[in-house]
Design goal:
Helices cover about 5% and strands about 40% of the residues.
Length: about 180
């Protein structure tokens, strides 16, 4: 959701997927690693964050691991009816709440949307998402709109393939042949 320098202030870390019991608890799909990291912030913002609405500030009263995700209890929301408003909402934080990373490391949300070009200067497309494979992460690169291809590239996030990441210019250079 957020890329530094784009002006977007909320980083989406998860989504409320359903109720859990009758005392206001909610099921949450966390996008963080480890998955309970989503609840380690002073507060979260809940809302239709993809639409960049301001959302509702909530504090975590309690949380637990659940076989299919996490469950959370927000302070002040003590019944199913109270917490109903959060169903389907994104959960995020203000970008300034993120820890600074060491030089050369990036949050996934910073990479999504970057234009990808190879060493020959050819534009391959834009980073659509990332996949966690267990061995290494993989960039999913889709062609830019108007390009005469529907090809998708899967570029491994490894030192030999990633040449340069320029967040300020919104560009990622890879040592990767388009293979047409």
């Amino acid at each position: 959701m957020d890329t530094r320098g784009t002006g977007k202030k909320i980083v989406v870390l998860g989504k409320v997927t359903g109720h859990y019991g009758i005392k206001g608890w909610l099921k949450v799909k966390s996008y963080t690693r480890p998955r309970d990291r989503i609840f380690h912030y002073d507060h979260l913002v809940a809302g239709k964050l993809a639409e960049n609405e301001p959302g509702t500030r909530v504090s975590v009263e309690d949380y637990r691991s659940h076989p299919h995700g996490m469950v959370v209890k927000f302070a002040g929301y003590n019944s199913r009816e109270d917490s109903q408003r959060f169903l389907g909402n994104g959960l995020g934080i203000h970008r300034l709440q993120l820890d600074d990373l060491p030089e050369g490391e990036f949050y996934w949300h910073e990479l999504i949307g970057l234009t990808v070009e190879n060493l020959e200067g050819e534009t391959l497309g834009r980073v659509q998402s990332l996949l966690e494979t267990g061995a290494n992460d993989v960039l999913v690169v889709l062609p830019l709109e108007g390009k005469n291809t529907s090809r998708e590239w899967l570029v491994p996030w490894i030192r030999s393939a990633i040449v340069n990441v320029d967040l300020d210019r919104g560009r990622l250079t890879v040592d990767w042949d388009h293979g047409d």
